[in-house]
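Need a sequence for this fold. Nothing fancy.
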């Protein structure tokens, strides 16, 4: 990246961090989310990780300040003291200088001063892999009906929080000491699509592959083999009674089920074309 691109990325990261910390990210209209979430309960005191396999697509945003992503989240804290780790794929021209689909990470922590950023723009995420960096541009993406390109992604907690791809590549880690609320595990896990539309813009970006066809897994962006960590080195499939579903003003979520077949297991569909007003989407 040029120095100018790097400064633009830093400015975008700081601005989005401040906007996301303004309140519960699901309820802020600048950030639209469609997917599922599970909160800790007496049966699950804290989550120690999250993983899924998500279809890789390349939806194109409608402006440089917009982004669209497919993401897993670990969260703790409340609207005024939110700590969060995100990872997945993203299309974010202002951050990356192009419209390609890239691996990304994002974290926030709230100590004496709100902190956090994307990838390794600020100190926080520690790159370990010499083969796959955060902000890696995926060379191949899927097309509807030709959905062979997928990303298997996992966050797990040992002493630190680690990011792993395809059960093989440990990409890097978030040191435990940058967090407070997340230090002992997360209170919520989320899976799905997230899109950002800057204030003042009315045309939102597409999410997923830009369409939603209920019941058609090969025509709609999907997540499968969804799991969460309940202890060190122990992942389980979601307790369906604890799953909350989320649709947004522009985007859909649906068809969540657990096939328990070793391929689909717990899975759901999400996405949509965007370009909408406050009217609810047709899902």
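Here you go.
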């Amino acid at each position: 990246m040029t120095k100018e691109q790097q400064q633009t990325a830093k400015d975008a990261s700081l601005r989005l961090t401040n906007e996301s910390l303004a309140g519960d990210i699901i309820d802020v209209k600048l950030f639209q989310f469609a997917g599922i979430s599970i909160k800790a309960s007496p049966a699950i005191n804290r989550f120690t990780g999250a993983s899924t396999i998500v279809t890789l697509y390349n939806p194109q945003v409608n402006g440089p300040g917009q982004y669209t992503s497919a993401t897993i989240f670990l969260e703790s804290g409340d609207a005024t003291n939110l700590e969060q780790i995100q990872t997945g794929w993203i299309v974010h021209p202002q951050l990356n200088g192009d419209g390609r689909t890239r691996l990304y990470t994002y974290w926030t922590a709230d100590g004496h001063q709100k902190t956090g950023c994307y990838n390794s723009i600020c100190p926080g995420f520690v790159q370990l892999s010499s083969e796959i960096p955060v902000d890696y541009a995926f060379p191949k993406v899927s097309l509807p009906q030709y959905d062979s390109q997928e990303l298997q992604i996992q966050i797990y907690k040992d002493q630190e929080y680690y990011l792993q791809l395809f059960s093989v590549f440990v990409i890097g880690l978030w040191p435990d000491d940058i967090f407070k609320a997340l230090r002992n595990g997360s209170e919520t896990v989320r899976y799905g699509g997230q899109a950002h539309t800057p204030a003042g813009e009315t045309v939102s970006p597409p999410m997923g592959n830009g369409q939603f066809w209920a019941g058609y897994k090969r025509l709609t962006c999907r997540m499968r083999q969804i799991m969460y960590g309940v202890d060190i080195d122990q992942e389980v499939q979601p307790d369906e009674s604890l799953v909350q579903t989320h649709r947004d003003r522009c985007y859909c979520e649906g068809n969540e089920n657990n096939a328990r077949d070793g391929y689909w297991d717990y899975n759901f569909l999400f996405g949509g074309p965007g370009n909408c007003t406050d009217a609810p989407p047709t899902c």
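For context: The longest strand covers residues 67-76.
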